[in-house]
C-alpha cells in the first residue's frame, strides 16, 4: 500500500526530543531599493540576525508554490506543517478565533476592513487611515445593532481598521468571493456565488452591506466596509495529534492567535515588545516542545509602502531575535510567512529568507541574514510546508522511515 505523502511526517513523529522555537517576522522578504540594490532586510542594521546566520543553515522558502502570492492564513498554515491547499482556512474564521469569539459549527465568519470611499463609491484608502482601535470599537458597536430576519449577526472589533462579522443560522455557507478589490480607485466588488448553497449567505451579506452603508455614510474616514475570507469553520487535526508535540503561541494580533489556536496550540498572553517576548518565552519554555513567536511590524510597514519604516521595523525585529536567542532553544528557526516588498505595498510571491540554528544543522558560509546571502545557503530553496519537518528532524523528533 502506498503511504499518503502528506502523512509521512506524522507517521515517524516521536514524543521525545529537543525544544523548538519558530520566530516569524510577518512579511519579512522585500525587493531591492532602486538606488542601493539592497532590500529592506539587507539595508537594516541586524547584528543579531547576522550572528545567527553565521551559526545556522540558511536558505529561502516558497510559502505556497512558485508564483503564488499567499495570504497570511495559508502562509502560516504552511509554516505549521499543513499543506495550505489541502487545509484552506478562511481569513474570517482565523480572525474570529483570534479574538476568542465562540465560533460554532455552521457559523460563517468574515474579516472586515473599514475603508474610505469617495462620492462615486471608489476606494480611496483600503484601511481608512488605520483608524484607532477605539474608533473601530465604536463603529462595530453601531454595526452590531443591525438586525436581519434571515440570520443572527455579530460584529466584533479586532484592531485598528479590522473587524469580524459572524453569521449564525440555518442554511449558511462559506466560500463567497471577497469584496475587497485589493486596489484603490475602484469600487468594492459585488458579492457573487458559485453554487446555490451560497444564495442565502449572499442575501444576508447584501442586506447587511446596505444597512452598514447607511450607518457609516457620514464618517470622515471609515465610511465603508469591505469583506474578505467569507468562510465556515471546519475541524482539522492538531499539531499535537500529528507531530506529538505540546505547542504554544506568543502573538499580539488576533489573526495569528486564531490560526495558532486552530491547529491546537495553547495561545498564551499577547506580546508586543522584545521584553514581552523574552519574559513570556522563558516562562513557557519549560512546559512546551514548540513555541511560535510572531512579529508583525515588518508586514504592516511594507503594506504601507514605506521602505524606511520597514527598515526600522526590521531593526526592531533584530532586537527581538536577540532576546529569543538568549533563551538558547535546541532548535531556532527564523523566517517570514511571506514577502511584503514596500515597493509593492502588498504581499508578494517572492521566496523568503530562513535560518535554522541547531546542533545538527549543516552550517554554511552565509554571514548575513538577507535575501541574496540566503540564496547561497545550504538549505537551498524549500517549500514553506517543509520547514516544520526540518525543525522536528533537527530536534531529534522524527524516527527513521522504513527498514
Topology:
Blueprint: H1 8-12, E1 20-25, H2 40-43, H3 47-54, E2 57-62, H4 72-79, H5 91-98, E3 108-117, E4 123-125, H6 133-143, E5 152-159, E6 162-168, H7 199-216, E7 224-232, H8 239-243, E8 247-250, H9 254-262, E9 266-267, H10 274-285, E10 290-295, H11 297-303, H12 307-326, E11 331-335, E12 352-358, H13 371-374, E13 380-383, H14 387-394
Parallel strand pairs: 1-10, 1-11, 2-13, 8-9, 8-10
Antiparallel strand pairs: 2-12, 3-4, 3-6, 3-7, 5-6, 11-12
Describe the structure concisely.
With 403 residues, the chain is an alpha/beta fold.
Question: What report would you give on this structure?
Answer:
The chain has 403 residues and is an alpha/beta fold. The chain has two domains: 8-89 and 236-394, Alkaline Phosphatase, subunit A; 94-232, 2-Layer Sandwich (Alpha-Beta Plaits), CATH 3.30.70. 32% of the residues lie in helices and 19% in strands. It is built from 14 helices and 13 strands. It has helices spanning 8-12, 40-43, 47-54, 72-79, 91-98, 133-143, 199-216, 239-243, 254-262, 274-285, 297-303, 307-326, 371-374, 387-394, and strands spanning 20-25, 57-62, 108-117, 123-125, 152-159, 162-168, 224-232, 247-250, 266-267, 290-295, 331-335, 352-358, 380-383. An eight-stranded mixed sheet has the order 9-8-10-1-11-12-2-13, sandwiched between helices. Strands 3, 4, 5, 6 and 7 form a five-stranded antiparallel sheet that branches. β8 (247-250), α9 (254-262) and β9 form a beta-alpha-beta unit. α11 packs antiparallel against α12 (307-326). The protein is globular.
